[in-house]
Amino acid sequence: MHARAPAPSPDLSARIDAAIARAIDEKRIVGAVVLVARDGETVYRRAMGLADRELNVPMREDTLFRLASVSKLFVSVAAMVLISQGRLSLDAPVTTWLPEFRPTLPDGSAATITIRHLFTHTAGLGYGFLEPEDGPYHRVGVSDGMDRAEISLHENLRRLASVPLLFTPGTAWLYSLSIDVLGAIVSAAFGGSLPVAIGALLARPLGLADTGFVVPDPARLAAAYADDSPAPRRMSEPDRIPMLEGLADIVMDPSRAFDPEAFPSGGAGMIGRADETLRLLEALRKGGEPLLPTALVCEMGRVQTGEVAVAGWPGWGYGLGFSVLKDAAAAGTSESPGTWRWGGAYGHSWFVDRARKLSVVAFTNTALEGMSGGGRFPQEICRAIYGG
What we know:
By secondary structure, the chain is α+β, with helices and mostly antiparallel strands. The protein has helices at residues 9-25, 71-84, 115-120, 136-140, 153-161, 178-190, 194-206, 274-285, 294-300, 328-331, 377-386, and strands spanning 31-38, 41-52, 57-58, 65-66, 225-226, 233-234, 239-241, 250-252, 271-272, 316-318, 323-325, 340-344, 348-353, 358-364, 366-367.
């Protein structure tokens, strides 16, 4: 049975245009860049709304964004490149590269965390915004990677390792700082800082001129906005974004993007463009060249979590660096089983439907409305693409 292809380009364009315009008119987002590639060709590209509302700067296709958790895609692929080179191993313990990173189990006994556990968020780690305000990460000062913590990556990992794991590695799933740990391992295995490693392993091979940890052109960086009524509000520095009732807020400081001393957070600290993110996704969708062998791309896209529930994502499992669709009906989506998806808290979503040869990037400057799992906008873009 052949998968139903998305609608022809004129209809596709009209539907996506309408979805973006509606979100802007309803003051749910300030601006967006949306790109759709089908069978290797970019069939839709649009920048709408404003990159900076107060300065009346229009959104452009080359606008730069704070990537937040879209960073996880880049760092995960960099780690896979090192695996393809034999410099990392999926099932080796993290202490091979980070000998001091030894968080214990809740009872104080030793635990073994593997590289695979980090990729899949099954290591027993968490996030500060997924615990109460007085939780253990807050008590020891762990940074979630989006604030202006005046600490090094090494110090943040030291603090993280001082807190007992939330569960035995491999037995449960919890979204976590594990990609920050993986970023430190990429740095150690590569033999240079994480920004240098990303440049050598990903950015230069793919020609990603603006993707990294430093803003190459501050004038092109979109302002950051947060959900509010009657319109999104410009984020303060720092800002606190409510995520889940009863848990701590996400602390986000847009000024972090301009701080050359901010530690390189592999899970949340990168800067990039929509079209360069699409270039990476398309390289993976087509089989991995020039970065990875096809077998490793397939391993990334394989559900690694078995029957372990991915909390908050019914119908989805988790691969090596992103969620993977298991049950479209349970997820309430038209995407094909096996679709890869993730996003970022500053207002981003992306997905790759390999069965339909489809890659989509939708970046906004509005948290959390534009985020996969956060607001309506990603689902509206998805429905527009599939004609539903």
